[in-house]
TrEMBL record:
Protein name: Thioredoxin H2-like
Keyword vocabulary terms for this entry: Cytoplasm, Disulfide bond, Electron transport, Redox-active center, Transport
GO cellular component terms, A-Z: cytoplasm
Major localization class: cytoplasm
MF terms (GO), sorted A to Z: oxidoreductase activity, acting on a sulfur group of donors, disulfide as acceptor; protein-disulfide reductase activity
Family: Belongs to the thioredoxin family. Plant H-type subfamily.
Species lineage: Eukaryota, Viridiplantae, Streptophyta, Embryophyta, Tracheophyta
Gene name of this polypeptide: LOC107824109
Free-text function comment from the UniProt entry: Participates in various redox reactions through the reversible oxidation of the active center dithiol to a disulfide. The H form is known to activate a number of cytosolic enzymes.
Entry keyword annotation includes Protein biosynthesis: no
Record-linked Gene3D superfamilies: Glutaredoxin (3.40.30.10)
InterPro entries: Thioredoxin, Thioredoxin-like_sf, Thioredoxin_CS, Thioredoxin_domain, Thioredoxin_H-type-like
Cytoplasm as UniProt keyword: yes
Species per Swiss-Prot/TrEMBL record: Nicotiana tabacum
A Pfam match: Thioredoxin
Amino acid sequence: MGANYSSTLHEANNISTRAQVKSSQVIAFHSSTKWKLHFNSLKDTNKLVVIDFTATWCGPCKTMEPVINDFAAKYTDVEFVKIDVDELADVAQEYGVQAMPTFVLIRKGKFVDKVVGADKDGLKKKIEKHRAILY
């Protein structure tokens, strides 16, 4: 019973994780520690990561939210991360965020580009440029 129960529980957890990923392709972090662990796991991949530095009180950030969700659905080879600057001020400071929204593009743990402001077209161009580059 123990092995079957364990594997069933594991399968149930995988199903809920898969469903969660499909419903929201933008990963929000609410803990600096969890962000650091995730960031470190990305250093060995060639995947482009777009970090959306946002704030709940920021009007332009709210305008960009559906845009980011659309980009996440369209560019499935790119990882989209959302970080609230008020929750994770240390992470925002580490990336030199001074205005919202700020989008930081990283690959293999290294900064590759940045877009400041609600510039949908500018962000799209930079995503397309950097997702095509294979290091």
